[in-house]
Design brief:
The protein is α/β, with parallel strands linked by helices and 214 residues long. It has six helices and seven strands; from the N terminus they run βαβαβαβαβαβαβ. InterPro entries: NAD(P)-bd_dom_sf, SDR_fam.
Length: 214
C-alpha cells in the first residue's frame, strides 16, 4: 500500500494513480474532502482499494492518528509519499518569522510526523518519497519560504535515508527542475512517472536525491 500525504489534483494525485495502475492499494491524506472523494473514485475505478482521511498534517496528533489507522487497516505501508508545501507570495523583507515557521512546519516538519507514525508498519523494502523542487537551489525571492521548505525537506530526506538504510528502508527526494505544466515534460503525470522510477530503483547505487529535468 502507498500512503499519499498532501493528496490533491496535481502531482500527488498523479502519483496515486501511477501506483494504483501498478497494483498498489492507496491511502489518501489531504485537506479537501471533495477532492479526496473524487480522486478515490478514480482510483477505485482502476481496481485499487482506497481509503482517505481529511486531516491537517501540521496537527501532529491528527496526522499521526490518520497514518496509524491506514497502517493498522492493512498491516503494512510499502510506500509513503510526501507532497505538501506552502506557497506564500512574500519576499524576505515582508515575510514574517511566524509565517516562515508556519510554512516550514507544513513543508518540512510534517514529514517527520508522518514518517514516525508510518515506521511501525514499514519493513525492509519500504520506501519514502518526497516531491522536491529546484526552488531548493534556485529560490524565487517572491516566495521566499518555498525555497527554505524545499531545501529543508531535501536535507531531511538525506537524514532519513541514512537512518533507515540499516533496516532496508530507503528515502528519496525527486527534485523537479522545471515548472509544472499541462503539456510537455513537466505535467503531473510525467513527474509521477519520475517518482515511480525513483522509488522502484534497485537499491544498489541508491541515492537519496534524484533530479528530474524532463
Amino acid at each position: 500500500m502507498i500512503v499519499v500525504v498532501g493528496a490533491g489534483p496535481g502531482v500527488s494525485g498523479s502519483v496515486a494513480r501511477r501506483f494504483a495502475d501498478e497494483g498498489h492499494d492507496v491511502a489518501l491524506l489531504g485537506q479537501d474532502e471533495a477532492i479526496l472523494e473524487e480522486l478515490a473514485a478514480d482510483l477505485r475505478a482502476r481496481g485499487a482499494s482506497v481509503g482517505h482521511t481529511v486531516a491537517d498534517v501540521t496537527d501532529e496528533k491528527s496526522a499521526r492518528a490518520a497514518v496509524r489507522r491506514f497502517g493498522e487497516h492493512t498491516g503494512r505501508i510499502d510506500v509513503l509519499h510526501f507532497n505538501p508545501s506552502a506557497f506564500r507570495e512574500k519576499d524576505p523583507l515582508t515575510l514574517t518569522v511566524g509565517e516562515l515557521l508556519d510554512d516550514v512546519a507544513l513543508g518540512v516538519g510534517a514529514l517527520l510526523t508522518v514518517v514516525q507514525a508510518a515506521r511501525a508498519f514499514m519493513s525492509a523494502g519500504g520506501r519514502i518519497s518526497v516531491t522536491g523542487s529546484m526552488a531548493a537551489d534556485e529560490p524565487w525571492e517572491g516566495a521566499a519560504s518555498l525555497g527554505v521548505q524545499k531545501a529543508g525537506v531535501r536535507n531531511l530526506v538525506h537524514s532519513l535515508d541514512k537512518t533507515l538504510e540499516p533496516h532496508g528502508i530507503r528515502a528519496v527526494s525527486v527534485t523537479v527542475r522545471g515548472a509544472l505544466s499541462r503539456e510537455g515534460a513537466f505535467t503531473p503525470d510525467r513527474v509521477a512517472d519520475a517518482i515511480w522510477s525513483a522509488v522502484t530503483r534497485d537499491e544498489a547505487g541508491w541515492t537519496s536525491e534524484v533530479p528530474y529535468a524532463g
